[in-house]
Amino acid sequence: MSVRRPSNTQLAEIASSLGMNLSPERLDRYQAVLQANFDAYDLLDAQADYLPAAPDARESGYTPTPEENRLGAWQCKTRIQGRPGGVLAGKTVAIKDNIAVAGLPMLNGSITLDGYRPEVDATVVSRLLDAGATIAGKAVCEALCFSGGSHTAASGPVHNPRRPGYSAGGSSSGSAALVAAGEVDLALGSDQGGSVRIPSAFCGVYGMKPTHGLVPYTGAMPIESTLDHLGPITANVRDNALMLEVVAGADGLDPRQLSAATAAPYSATLSLGIAGVKIGVVREGFGHANSELDVDREVRQACEVFSAQGAVVEEVSIPLHTLGPSIWLAIAAEGATQQMMKGNSHGFNWRGLYLSGMIEHHARWRERADDLPDTVKTTMILGEYFSRQYQGRYYGKAQNLGRQLRHAYDEALARYDLLLMPTLPIKATRLPAADAPLEDYLGRAFEMLGNTCGFDVSGHPAMSIPCAISDGLPIGLQLVGKHFGEGDIYRAAYAFEQNTDWKTR
Fold it and tell me: With 305 labelled, which of 1, 394, 401, 482 sits at a CA distance of 20 to 30 A?
């Protein structure tokens, strides 16, 4: 086969879109000199793609019946058995549907990937199977992972198992709901603005966003490379720590990873206790404009549990924390528009594993742009406006301020081992109606990000643990550690879990 050659009309249209005006004679000459380049693309087209080895044939998965999917949380169900005897043997896991599982459909909560079945497993999927876990299926996620609510997936809303009719949180909505409902032991989520921690807080489970780059993102659909994280969602701290041990570490294919990205024996140190551990309660993490009084109150009262175990708990002020959402917005809106949408998921200018099938399928969003959800449309319009109007100036400024934000957290973490605040300012909200006004639809998608998104920018590890229940709905407490300090977070989370019952507080 050969690549399609452009006509002179196509060349003229491309040149014009780049601000160039070429005469017919000049177009003829360009056409002639470009032929050797097209021949080079013919050679490229003739080569087989260079991908990791595909796994052996496996079940293709099936769409569960409504009776099997009462929460709307399963995208598909299957049973892929891991290696016998691994550390996760006997554990079932749901994979968020923006992560490739070879042979299973991958929709990423949207209409753009219809018909796409990856040829290979994401690195984290291979590692889970090697550790003995059994993949039970793909979990629904929000449309292109761009919502903190659970009402934007093309398949319909995901319900909170603690209270149907309420949000499960997003964008890892199905992952958290299935763990909270006891339908699986473990789940994988992704987090670019809080998407592991938000649903974990709403559903009352444990969700860890690791240090940026600790867990390889290879084989997952990106949003924005500087914000992309994958992490575990579980029903208890020990399983979370064990799961991170399995999936963490460099794979040589993800440019987000540094040489320091190595796993540690997190589960082996859980019982060391937290006597003498210094915890800074971040003043700016409380009292947001939309903070619920019971959320702030219960998180502050939960600090007493840490104090009772010998931790030193003090208030600390980090004024720049309040700027985190604005910094994040510019990076997320402009970066996601360029990489996830205009760059057809993967974008350009990095070395690693590209899933060309994902690129090809997602590029079709242009044919159905009117069918994209309003969360994605408004983000793209905002991102494209600022990219065109200011030529990327504010994206660059936000990335620079992101380093300042990181330094502000690092300065506090030089005095404290951990930082503490509510994961979210609110508890789970009602799912908006299908005909809800645009303001409500978008409000339920983005209203809860104030304490989570800044740590996607700074890359610090952050974990949501359930700390109380109010009006029948869980309240999440967020612990933040130094870069690659997941072990400190797990020790504190385990001490809390073992010394109180959040469901009765």
Answer: 482
- In the structure encoding, which two tokens stand for residue 382, read together? 């905002």
CB 94 within 8 A of CB 178: yes
Give the pLDDT confidence of 419-448 residue by residue, as tens digits.
999 999 999 999 999 999 999 999 999 999
Handedness of CA 176, 178, 180, 182 (dihedral sign): negative
For this structure, is 175 an active site residue?
no
When pLDDT is averaged across residues 182-197 and rounded to a whole number, the result is: 98
Task: Give the pair of three-digit tokens for residue 236.
Answer: 């208890």
Contact 401, 331 (CB under 8 A): no
Architecture per CATH, 66-504: Alpha-Beta Complex (3.90)
Where are the alpha helices (H) located in 218-292, listed in sequence order? 237-247
Contact 256, 213 (CB under 8 A): yes
Catalytic residue status for 291: no
Identify the helix (H) or strand (E) that includes residue 187. Answer: strand 186-190
In 3D space, the residue among 148, 204, 281, 179 whose CA is nearest the CA of residue 470 turns out to be: 204
Cis peptide before 147 (omega within 30 of 0): no
Options 110, 126, 173, 195, the catalytic residue: 195
Domain ranges of the chain: 8-46, 66-504
Average pLDDT score over the chain: 97
- Which residue is catalytic, options 77, 91, 96, 427? 96
Give per-residue pLDDT as tens, 292-329.
999 999 999 999 999 999 999 999 999 999 999 999 99
The length of the chain is 505
Condensed to tens digits (0 to 9), the pLDDT of residues 139-166 reads 999 999 999 999 999 999 999 999 999 9
Residue in 110, 150, 167, 171 annotated catalytic: 171
Q: Give the span between the Cα atoms of 235 and 350, in whole angstroms.
A: 36
Q: List Cα–Cα distances, 154 to 69, 142, 144, 413, 434, in angstroms.
A: 15, 8, 10, 41, 12
The answer to whether residue 96 is catalytic is yes
